[in-house]
Amino acid sequence: MRVLAIDTALEACSAAVLDTSSGITASESLAMTRGHAEAVMPLIARVMSAAAIEFADLDRIAVTTGPGSFTGLRVGISATRGIALAAGKPAVGLSTLAGFAAPLIADDDSTQVVTAIDARHEQVYLQVFGTGGRTLVAPRIASVRDAARAAMTAPARIIGSAANKVAAAWPKGAEPPLSVEQRGAPDIDWIARLGAAAAEDHAPPKPLYLRAPDAQPQDAARLPRR
């Protein structure tokens, strides 16, 4: 199976091509907090060229669907939908939280993994994985303090863009986490691997929003209808 993976959900613009018979054939990731819309298509073109593959030769396209930046999510999902439609290939959506956790679970699935993404305002997007990678705490938004409490239920490894925040909220005297890995975005190579393993969904990928956007319409500023 040949998979093109795309991630623009957080602090990177990334793409990778995976051939399950030989591994990752091309991969590129640019650290950025904005500008994904301008960067994503040229980056995909470079990765496809490096992999020496045409869109028609792909078996599927995988994309991170969140949680993450509202603008970034729309950029990646729109690009994926467009490529899938033009190439006549299926597209699959993958959780950003699962993308962070995947390499840790693959390395050792016997200990708890806590994924925490910075949601601002002293909140995080949180998911907790237990033995065998099963979900113990489903994706949700939580305060940093509540995330630390959730992580303390068992010896845990913490990963994500809010990993340091959760570790800093750890109660004094409590057994510390096994590891803390601060990362701005998931590893795109693992997004590709998850994309190959995912069940095919015939519905197009949709953003995973765990809260409403900060920017809201100002009703008071609207002109009355005639």
Shape-level CATH architecture of the largest domain: 2-Layer Sandwich
User: Would you identify the regions where 5 or more consecutive residues have pLDDT less than 50?
Assistant: none
N- to C-terminal separation? 58 Å
State the strand order across the main sheet.
Answer: 3-2-1-4-5
Helix count, DSSP H or I runs of 4 or more residues: 6
According to CATH, the fold-level topology of the largest domain is Nucleotidyltransferase, domain 5
Quick recap:
The protein is an alpha/beta fold and 226 residues long. 31% of the residues lie in helices and 31% in strands.
3D structure, described in words:
The chain is α/β, with parallel strands linked by helices. It folds into 2 domains: 2-95 and 186-197, Nucleotidyltransferase, domain 5; 97-182, Nucleotidyltransferase, domain 5 (2-Layer Sandwich). Helices cover 31% and strands 31% of the residues. It is built from 6 helices and 10 strands, in the order βββαβαβαβββαβαβα. The protein has helices at residues 36-51, 70-87, 96-107, 144-151, 163-168, 188-197, and strands at residues 2-7, 12-19, 23-31, 60-66, 91-95, 112-120, 123-129, 135-143, 156-160, 179-182. A 5-stranded mixed beta sheet has the order 3-2-1-4-5, sandwiched between helices. Strands 8-7-6-9-10 form a 5-stranded mixed beta sheet. α1 packs across α2 and α3 (96-107) packs across α6. The radius of gyration is 18 Å and the shape is globular. It starts with a strand and ends in a 29-residue tail after the last helix. The mean pLDDT is 92.
